[in-house]
Amino acid sequence: MNKEKYVCDLGIIGGTGIYDTGVFKAIRELKINTPYGQPSDSVMLCEYDNKKIAFLPRHGKNHRIPPHMINFRANIWTLKELGIKYILAPSAVGSLREDYKPGDIVIPDQFIDFTKNRDYSFYDGGKVCHISMADPFCPDLRSKISESIKDLQFSHHDNGAYICIEGPRFSTRAESNFYKNIIKADIIGMTLVPECILAKEAEICYASIATVTDYDVWANIPVSSKEVIETLHKNVEKIRKIISTAVEKIPSDVFRKCLVLGI
């Protein structure tokens, strides 16, 4: 940002199927440069319930960026630059449990990292930073999401271990059974890491809202991108309702009006 700096409090990183602001009133679109290159897309400043929100599509508009090519550092740096203190992050996941069914919502409380080639930290040299990831997600945000889903009476699970793989390919049968039976993860996806790690380094409260789109291949039902996206599209309105309800539950006094500061 060259001439102006915009300050908001809540950021939403839209996952697969969530490419626009939906229920939020768009105010202004910002293109932001970062020390780490370009974020996934421009940021849309929005308004909802008299609160100011920054929306960033994780995969870019029209889903043009595959999971292993997302510039996570640029995305989180962008939201930090906007003064964001809270991030709600919807995503699509596969299920590694029979009782976590397609269409269910999962609020992960843990993750297992099986990614291989990503930029995991803002601290690559000159300064060393070790952060605790014992509890990777914000308990307050997770509580608000859970309350929202209960109000809406959607099928959901209040916890789960999310195993994050590199992608963009799906798992082999052997891998899927390994994740399910040996690692004992609950859901599987490709985007949580290092997004949540970088958010914690940036001191931003972060919570994931995971939508189950399919049973992973352990269930002997081949997974295709087409099926995943079709299932997710059926749940887009559900995710938007959860997000809008959660935003309403966050106390107004944690939000500031979106300021324009000359710099």
CATH superfamily: Nucleoside phosphorylase domain
The proportion of residues forming helix, as a percent range, comes to 25-40%
Number of alpha- plus pi-helical segments: 5
- CATH class category label: Alpha Beta
- Whole-number radius of gyration? 18 Å
Largest sheet: 11 strands, mixed
Indicate the CATH architecture: 3-Layer(aba) Sandwich
Shape: globular
Q: Can you write the helix and strand succession as a string?
A: EEEEEHEEEHEEHEHEHE
Strand content: 25-35%
Mean pLDDT: 88
Number of domains in the coordinates?
1
* Structural class by sheet pairing and helices: alpha/beta
Can you tell me the CATH topology? Rossmann fold
Q: What ranges have pLDDT less than 50 throughout 5 or more consecutive residues?
A: 257-263
Strands, total number: 13
The CA-CA distance between the termini, in Å, is 9 Å
In terms of topology, how is this protein built?
Blueprint: E1 4-7, E2 10-14, E3 25-30, E4 43-48, E5 51-57, H1 72-81, E6 86-95, E7 105-106, E8 110-114, H2 139-152, E9 156-157, E10 161-165, H3 173-182, E11 187-189, H4 192-201, E12 205-215, H5 225-249, E13 259-262
Helix pairs in contact: 1-4, 2-5
